[in-house]
Amino acid sequence: MSAPKKVVLAYSGGLDTSIILKWLQTEYRCEVVTFTADLGQGEELEPARAKAEMLGIAPSNIYIEDVREEFVRDFVFPMFRANALYEGLYLLGTSIARPLISKRLVEIAHETGADAVAHGATGKGNDQVRFELSAYALDPAIKVIAPWREWDLTSRTKLLEFAEAHQIPIAKNKRGEAPFSVDANLLHTSSEGRVLEDPGQEAPDYVYQRVTRPEEAPDAPEMVEIAFEKGDAVAINGEAMSPATILTRLNELGGKHGIGILDLVENRFVGMKSRGVYETPGGTILLEAHRGIEQITLDSGAGHLKDWLMPRYAELIYNGFWFSPEREMLQAAIDKSQEHVTGTVRVKLYKGSARTVARWSDHSLYSEAHVTFEEDAGAYDQKDAEGFIRLNALRLKLLATRNAKFK
């Protein structure tokens, strides 16, 4: 790959990406543009601007953007229409943020005339794959620089020495090894590495940042009502809200009641297993509520097909194929299924549990007249079931008769 002339860097303002910024300048002698995304990680982002300026980045080359609404509206909500869970448990909080970051990196590269983008993902993880597959899907000619796969700064000591040599400020709490690594956005907090690397040891309490431990959650349950239109949440307790505001409010409620903690050993796309502790309070409530409204508005055939497709859909997102044609094809089918997924769900929050206790909708397929144990006034003729059973039993009877001959 020829040396880039101008690079757009996914920049957090932290020590590692500041080292990457300076390394790009010294290694490639190139102009650097920084992009810092507010995905709801809960950190003040303006210090990233000051840090970038201190490292020689022109103010016009510093992009700091609030993308929370786009993140929830265009990435999180479409994923939740599918009830997506990777390996049956993981709500894909990190996975779903990467295509949005890559999208903006490529767009800013086009806006500024840059010929490359760069990220700070390591060569052992999934994020490098997600960033790069997304970038290439959006611009096949873009160059992608992954410093962790190129440089010789292979230890904490070397990283700190490089930082000191280039006058990069090092906070006191960054001089030692952090007890674990954190990635956060509006959907979740992910913690992994170091004290969490042994899956045989329980995660220490200090790992948890977003969710109250269930044992310490309020002793009284709380009810929350979530309204949906065409599969997307639109209101909480009767108050209409934007997508990001809804997720923020559900995070507050879920965090308070100890909801959304997951300790998972997962299979990374690159081949190894890793252990992560995830906190997804709002997402856990949202999944439960969405399932609740689908119970009365989604036809059984469509619902069962969705459940069959979901693991493949979730795997595509986990592996970085958000912008692939197969994900878009599945999304079209999922979105079609949501045309009548409109109504309200009441969820009970209590000590780590989010449980649907009521649901109602003008689009409901539920017919009390058909399922009642009382007199149904002719809505259903129970005698019809006899022929239904006979037809479905026919092949089983033929098999049993044949098999009895050869015992």
UniProtKB/TrEMBL annotation:
The reaction(s) this protein catalyses: L-citrulline + L-aspartate + ATP = 2-(N(omega)-L-arginino)succinate + AMP + diphosphate + H(+)
Cellular component annotations (GO), alphabetically ordered: cytoplasm
InterPro entries, A to Z: Arginosuc_syn_C (IPR048268), Arginosuc_syn_N (IPR048267), Arginosuc_synth (IPR001518), Arginosuc_synth_CS (IPR018223), Arginosuc_synth_type_1_subfam (IPR023434), AS_cat/multimer_dom_body (IPR024074), Rossmann-like_a/b/a_fold (IPR014729)
Binding site for L-aspartate: 122, 126-127
Locations listed in the record: Cytoplasm
Pathway: Amino-acid biosynthesis; L-arginine biosynthesis; L-arginine from L-ornithine and carbamoyl phosphate: step 2/3
Family annotation (CDD domains): ASS
Gene Ontology terms: biological process: argininosuccinate metabolic process; L-arginine biosynthetic process; urea cycle
Molecular function in Gene Ontology: argininosuccinate synthase activity; ATP binding
EC number(s) stated in the UniProt entry for this protein: 6.3.4.5
Main location: cytoplasm
Subunit (UniProt): Homotetramer.
Entry's family note: Belongs to the argininosuccinate synthase family. Type 1 subfamily.
Name of the protein described by the UniProt record: Argininosuccinate synthase
Encoding gene (name): argG
